[in-house]
Known about the structure:
Elements: H1 4-11, H2 21-32, H3 52-68, E1 73-79, E2 84-89, H4 92-100, H5 111-114, H6 118-125, E3 129-132, E4 144-152, E5 159-168, H7 175-194, H8 197-212, E6 217-221, E7 224-227, H9 229-233, H10 238-247, E8 254-259, E9 263-272, E10 275-283, H11 311-325, E11 328-332, H12 338-345, E12 351-354, H13 362-373, E13 379-382, H14 389-401, E14 408-413, H15 422-431, E15 434-438, H16 445-459, E16 464-465, H17 467-475, H18 481-495, E17 500-501, H19 508-511, H20 521-536, H21 541-548, H22 552-562
Amino acid sequence: xxxxxxxxxxxxxxxxxxxxxxxxxxxxxxxxxxxxxxxxxxxxxxxxxxxxxxxxxxxxxxxxxxxxxxxxxxxxxxxxxxxxxxxxxxxxxxxxxxxxxxxxxxxxxxxxxxxxxxxxxxxxxxxxxxxxxxxxxxxxxxxxxxxxxxxxxxxxxxxxxxxxxxxxxxxxxxxxxxxxxxxxxxxxxxxxxxxxxxxxxxxxxxxxxxxxxxxxxxxxxxxxxxxxxxxxxxxxxxxxxxxxxxxxxxxxxxxxxxxxxxxxxxxxxxxxxxxxxxxxxxxxxxxxxxxxxxxxxxxxxxxxxxxxxxxxxxxxxxxxxxxxxxxxxxxxxxxxxxxxxxxxxxxxxxxxxxxxxxxxxxxxxxxxxxxxxxxxxxxxxxxxxxxxxxxxxxxxxxxxxxxxxxxxxxxxxxxxxxxxxxxxxxxxxxxxxxxxxxxxxxxxxxxxxxxxxxxxxxxxxxxxxxxxxxxxxxxxxxxxxxxxxxxxxxxxxxxxxxxxxxxxxxxxxxxxxxxxxxxxxxxxxxxxxxxxxxxxxxxxxxxxxxxxxxxxxxxxxxxxxxxx
Length: 564
């Protein structure tokens, strides 16, 4: 059993070996979440205590409580977020102890709030969690042992809550896990019995389809979706699918529909008493990228482009139009393809001067600019946002003195939709330069798919991404934008063992995106702001919450929701 000394060594920065691996991993998560090991104020959330799950589960929990009367233990039930919805404890002294620890209805024991604990860790890992005494991350819980397990709905397979048994650490015994498992089994059976005949019929259809193969499978009904992990990773929208299925009802019981990201699905209606009850949706893997003819040498430098109607092509047309009229500046986040787009906008190869090197010898850099302006070739000033005020003023003076300018373009790094720093703006305004803003990739799954397809055609002819890998690529935030996407696709194509690039072939940070559900545009915007503020404060959640104007509890909840 983990000792207090082991816990103290971990809190002092060591990595103790005399602790169970699952506990050590949870401790690391707790530390990363910013949980205070010395004290934690367990958050009280507005929790619905009268849910369908609670109505089904509480009678079973009460039946077990009747068998435990006189025993020094506590039974508790939580919802899927870790908030306690029901508690029973018979011994007054243990009740007082647990009251002091906030093991009471309405208080939330999510691991990101409270650290390693039975309820929170079981919900985090999706399995049985046994947390004995000083294995709790927060010291004030070291006098108790908690054993908990999540409850998955037998029809939807979603976690709907968790069962927990607590006792004094000195009373820890192996029967606690037996009690928890028995309660979970009985609650699942009761949930199945409470399900409607239609839901059970759809579940049977889902299980039958599952046995036929291992691809993404979902069953959709009115108000219901059951999906295996591969289908869940695709972020299928139940309402959209249901609308598609309803539209097919006159077209027979077996049809095909198109899904986002160039995916297709076979739809087979499920009937109950002759009437449609729902449909089995079997998703096909993403098709292999088509062969594309090689582009002319100069145009091959352009970043991966989507179809002619894409945002990239619209930006390229605007850049070419502006470049034909006078100076043009391309703005965007790092890696969005600013230099590539601007290079393609000129009729001849430009002379490129990177402002990142100006700091090494400003006078020599300005001399090279002066010489370039005397020639006929276009001039491209890259990264002008890196010019300090003095260098920017010197560049402005040279441009003013040059008279007739050759085709001139500038690139500057700027946040999405924002203007660059004042010295650069003065330089741009002095040139009366037209501007093109390149949008980042995050939150634009269609653009991500288009650029991925183009990059894959360039680096991996005949290859395709598995459905879960495709979903991860679409959901990842791509902080490095096109440059990062090109690198990821190139490396994945190079290392692929067969014709299909699987999820395991992607970097860890991209794989992590596969676990996220699909976010709405508003949620994506909020997640982006929170991620940006967290980066600014080096992950310090207290400072981030203060700047965002929300509580730490609310911040933790959003971090968990958006899997930041």
